[in-house]
Amino acid sequence: MANSVTHYSFFIISAILASIFAFTKATNNSFSLDLIHRDSPNSPFYDPSLSYTKRMSNSFHRSFNRSKDFGSRSSSIVASNNGEYLMKFSLGTPPVHTLGVADTGSDLTWTQCLPCKHCFKQQPRLFNPKKSSTYKSLPCNSKKCHAPFSTSCNRTKRTCEYQVMYGDQSYSVGDLATETIRFGSSKNTQLSLKNTIIGCGHNNAGTFSGDKESGIVGLGGGKFSLISQMGSSIGGKFSYCLAPLSQHNHIPKSKIYFGTNAIVLGNKVVTTPLAKKSPATFYFLTLEGVSVGKKRLDFRKVSFSFGEGNIILDSGTVLTLFSPEIYVKLEAMVKEEIKLPTVTDPTGALSLCYKSLSVEKIPIITMHFKGADVKLGPLNTFVETSESSMCFAFAASYGVSIYGNIAQMNFLVGYDLKRRSISFKAADCSK
Question: What are the residue boundaries of the Peptidase A1 domain, all occurrences included (predicted)?
Fold first, then answer.
């Protein structure tokens, strides 16, 4: 192939940029949502004043911050609030349309509520629990009040309160309650989840993505996450397929699936177990090594920190991040395969960049997960950071290791919480 990788750069942006989840279809035990990336002209976050390089720089720095947040997690810290995806849903009866940051690194779903003692600015109207017939505060003696995040009893109201904090010092404090969550815009296609535990935030502040969202949608693996609360209704299964962009802002729709539609099938599916590790929120995998071409880097021989669950699968992080001791060896292996002069990354975030690359010069990089080898193509390993630079989409981080969403692009990634496994299958996610 003689095509330049710069031609492929048009396909890379989708996995880097974030998305809004828009409902498309529901059946008895499954439903799917469209994904629209965050910085597209169709997104409320679209900012035409930002240059491409600036958008890339912002997304890279969010990756590094998220890794540090994951690593500093305590019982009251729930990762980063700057996820790469947004989710549309309705809350309460009658339903109030809400937009939240969809986060595979958080459990509790919460939204800003009236009365608001201290809230960040948002465009959607605040949720008023007094106007919802299905809203119920949790009493202090409820078993559900005993959560892995911080909870306490309001002795005046005798209701359960929560407090969640993020690694960047953002926070939400309010009432734990049960409420009805709905996906879909019409009664015929609507899916309702009754008695779902949510946080009704009356005191919220921090560096949230902007004034378009109202809170967090928890898609983590803990028992209070939206995924876990869906439980048997979706069989503990969900999957997504992140589509790459094509030229001229044509935006193919990505998808996220829940229930029977989420099962990843086919001869070329590879599956790796989810590691049992704390906190249960995160999706821990075991990565045994990485190959660049035919040369393999065995983590067990080069890292003192190697062990089960050494990397987190996360759709909210752009880059794939390793400890410095791993990354420096991986970068050296890539340099051995691509014998070309390097250039400086204009975003200042990535360390291995080239002025131009042809597809045939980029080696296949294989991620050796436990029991599953995932082969990554050029779209998953190199990203255009400007009109004159292509950079390796992996980086060193002193936080935890994360398998980011560039590496997941054009793969159907299936989560099975019942069997505790993750499946990968190469796919054309634009179709």
Answer: 85-425
